[in-house]
Design goal:
It contains 15 helices and 19 strands. Strands 9, 10, 11, 12, 13, 14, 16, 17, 18 and 19 form a ten-stranded mixed sheet that branches. It has two domains: 178 residues, Endonuclease Chain A (Endonuclease, Chain A), CATH 3.30.870; 206 residues, Endonuclease Chain A (Endonuclease, Chain A, 2-Layer Sandwich), CATH 3.30.870.10. It is 35% helix and 20% strand. The termini are far apart. The protein is of the alpha+beta class. Helix 7 links the parallel strand 11 and strand 12. The longest helix is centred in the middle third of the chain and has 21 residues.
């Protein structure tokens, strides 16, 4: 588990240097100007590093596939993706924009594979405004975009895997190249381990699953493994449901959580989300729908087992909220899920997504999952995982432990939700957060069906009846 991008970027920097045959990068966005170690003055930009690697290794190929709409929707440099940069001018570096997707659907997977032996997958793109340390300082001199402009603290998660899991993720990347109508790279056979030497593994010899979302597009059928996984894991919960999410708007997620909250012996539900959506469009649909979903959960919380927080820093200068970009769910001490999929409609059926899931079938794995949850909560509360574990054991409650320890500069703050108001999604959801690809004919049909039910319809009928009589 690589918690926060300082950890991910640093270990990725070391892993890149071990590459000999293949570096595969799949992203929602990409920017070669970023530095993987901005705290190191000698660190070169990512693009320059990749160029240097292929020049030193005669068999190394670098393939980068990025969502096409990133050139205007994402925060990276549009000119770098559209016009190219000098580091890309090498015959063994390919960078392409993937235009093979439904209208406004996003290629949202964030995967890096090295020699098919080591892979990284989760919520972190190799782009601007992603780097931050686990300390999430209110002001960090290293947290700057390529123009030198500062940005706020951001919390995110990536997972590193090796072995068969890495090979499987590499095949997902190659499948994406094939779906984009481009020739994929050749598989790599390499026996030695590429595991970063300074990275301690959280799980060893552990089985895992890869869940995906693909929309129905052209000749490809839809794949909705993540939607099924989300439902199954929530409904299987017995003790705890711990969620970290950027977006939380999907009605089926609300329905499943409300069902568990309504059970007398159901699980405690802890949700860590970002304080508010960014941009007017996000605030209108994602923000309002999140508020309506949370209102529905509060109404269902008859046994007072629900907590909804955003992480923040409180100091003498005031409050600085930490942007939550993570996509993680932990159920009891049994199921751990990390990936690119948000808990919104798009991630369930429209966007391409990839999640990694571990289900514990022994005490060692259960203990490792428990440690991950304690580590994450400890970071948000400004305390150690050991202190959180000790407090939870003494209180016989994780919720009580959070309330006891939630008094440092780093803390969790309750999300404010009005108890009265609508619980159904806003009207524009089917356009900005759709569950299925948007087809123009479907939109026309929907508009026609709605149009014939407008108040003007009886007047038209009356007019035509009068016309027939005359």
């Amino acid at each position: 588990m690589l918690v926060d991008s300082e950890s991910y970027f640093s270990h990725l920097h070391d892993a890149f240097k071990l590459a000999r045959r293949s570096i595969l990068i799949l992203g929602w966005d990409f920017d070669g100007r970023i530095k993987l170690r901005p705290q190191d003055e000698s660190c070169m930009s990512l693009g320059a590093m990749l160029r240097g690697l292929v020049e030193r290794c005669p068999d190394l190929h670098v393939d980068i596939l990025v969502w096409s709409v990133a050139v205007w929707h994402a925060p990276s440099s549009a000119s770098g993706l559209l016009l190219g940069e000098s580091w890309q001018e090498h015959p063994r570096i390919r960078i392409h924009l993937d235009t093979h997707h439904p209208i406004y659907a996003a290629h949202h997977q964030k995967i890096v594979c090295i020699d098919d032996a080591l892979a990284f997958s989760g919520g972190i793109d190799l782009t601007v405004q992603r780097w931050d340390s686990a300390e999430h300082l209110a002001t960090d001199p290293h947290r700057l975009d390529p123009e030198g402009e500062p940005y706020g603290p951001v919390h995110d998660i990536q997972m590193a895997v090796q072995g068969e899991a890495a090979t499987a993720l590499a095949e997902i990347v190659r499948e994406r190249w094939r779906r984009a109508g481009l020739p994929p790279s050749q598989p790599v056979e390499r026996s030695e381990s590429l595991w970063p030497p300074m990275l301690a593994a959280d799980f060893n010899d552990t089985r895992l699953a890869i869940a995906r979302t693909y929309p129905h597009w052209e000749d490809h059928p839809r794949v909705e493994e993540i939607a099924a996984l989300t439902q199954d894991t929530i409904l299987a919960a017995r003790t705890y449901i711990y969620i970290e999410a950027q977006y939380l708007t999907a009605p089926e997620v609300a329905k499943a959580l409300a069902r568990k909250l309504g059970q007398e012996d159901g699980p405690d539900v802890i949700i860590i989300i970002t304080k508010q959506s960014r941009g007017r469009a996000e605030q209108f649909v994602m923000g309002r729908n999140r508020e309506r979903l949370l209102r529905r959960l509060i109404h269902a919380d008859r046994h007072h087992r629900l907590r909804i927080y955003y992480p923040a820093i409180l100091d003498d200068k005031g409050e600085t909220s930490i942007h939550v970009h993570a996509k993680l769910t932990i159920v009891d001490d049994r199921i751990l899920r990390v990936g690119s999929a948000n808990l919104n409609n798009r991630s369930m059926g429209l966007d391409t997504e990839c999640d990694i899931v571990i289900e514990a079938d022994d005490d060692v794995t259960r203990n490792a999952i428990c440690k991950v949850r304690e580590r994450l909560l400890g970071e948000h509360l400004g305390t150690s995982a050991a202190k959180l574990r000790e407090t939870a054991h003494a209180a016989h409650s994780l919720l009580a432990a959070i309330e006891t320890l939630n008094h440092s500069e780093r803390r969790l703050i309750d999300i404010s939700v009005q108890h009265r108001g609508p619980t159904r999604p806003v009207w524009a959801t089917f356009i900005l957060d759709p569950r299925r690809p948007i087809e123009p004919l479907w939109l026309l049909q929907r508009g026609f069906r709605r149009g014939i039910n407008l108040p003007i319809r009886p007047r038209l009928q009356q007019y035509f009846r009068q016309d027939e009589k005359s």
